[in-house]
Amino acid sequence: MASLRRLAWMCRDIAKQHVDNPDVPAAPDGADGYAEWVQIALILYRVELEKSLRETEDYLNEMPDILAVFDLDEAPHYSSFCRWENEYRMRELRRLLRRSAEQAGWSGEAAIDASGFQRDQTSYHYRDRANYAFHSMKTTILIDVNSPAIKAVHFTTQKAWDGHIGIQVFRRSAENLRVLSADANYSWSNLREECRSNSTRPLIKHREHTPYRRLTTPG
Predict the structure, then answer these.
(1) Nearest to 178 by CA among 201, 203, 145
(2) So what's the pLDDT on residue 149?
(3) Start-to-end CA span in the chain (Å)
(4) Domain coverage including residue 159
(5) Which pLDDT value is given to residue 199?
(6) How much is the pLDDT for 107?
(7) 152 near 97, Cβ under 8 Å?
(8) What is the DSSP string of 74-137?
(9) Which pTM value belongs to this model?
(10) Which residues of the chain have pLDDT under 50?
(11) Domain count, the chain
């Protein structure tokens, strides 16, 4: 419980540092309106807990000590979380993600990988509220191998190649990145050269060619 409370305080502090008016009451308009810092803090807390929207509402209502950290007597409705997360731009969320990573520590040694998300795994109600118009999403994460803190994320609904995504993610996080690890899906000479030009050691597994590729590849 103590660690969850510390996490709540960390999310609160990051959110208050991010907004222009950190001293606004948590719910200045009662239960129908919440301060910007509360919205950001609860988004960060939900992501760290890895809970769904409904689970987050139920969890907070069962944890009055956690609600007290956010100066709330009752958790916002789960639909509020949905609306807030749809309103904040990805650039702003990335900036908050970097701030939370700094709190956890950054060793400079990172690994990158991706996973898929199928649209049919979400409820129809949530998809309608979030205005989904895609069938799958590819999520790429750059994570510190020692913390482990998430340094950067990339989302796309297109059929993008891992190498192209990898170089985008690296460029956003190249500062103080000493080692980048990745599997063979990120085996691309341009990515390796980009790493070396920024004094980053690329530990990227080389893609192995099939016998047919070996015969048809010059040299």
Answers:
(1) 201
(2) 77
(3) 61
(4) 106-216
(5) 94
(6) 83
(7) yes
(8) SPPPHHHHHHHHHHS-HHHHHHHHHHHHHHH---SEEEEEEEEEEGGGS-HHHHHHHT---SEE
(9) 0.51
(10) 1, 212, 215-219
(11) 2
